[in-house]
Design goal:
This protein is an all-alpha fold and 76 residues long. The chain starts with 20 loop residues before the first helix and ends with a helix. The longest helix has 47 residues. It is rod-shaped. The chain contains 2 helices and no strands. Helix content is 70%, strand content 0%.
Length: 76
């Protein structure tokens, strides 16, 4: 059985926040950018999942119709 190529929706990596408050202060700009990037990336991830769900739903309908035609051809 060969699976069709589906879109790849890869979840972004969660931002890291040091448990040490000094390290958090030292790297605040980097951590802030990581959070902002994560928020942007997770929104894109959600959109990707929505597109993939719609694609898979449409494909499932097409496969169901093809199966119905097949059953008619073979007389089942």
């Amino acid at each position: 059985m060969v699976a069709s190529q589906a879109g790849s929706c890869l979840a972004p990596v969660r931002p890291f926040v040091p448990s040490d408050s000094q390290a958090s202060s030292d790297f605040a700009d980097i951590i802030r950018r990581d959070f902002e990037a994560y928020i942007t990336d997770i929104q894109q991830y959600f959109h990707c999942l929505e597109r993939e769900r719609a694609r898979a739903f449409e494909e499932a309908g097409e496969v169901s119709q093809a199966y119905g035609r097949f059953l008619e051809q073979v007389g089942d």
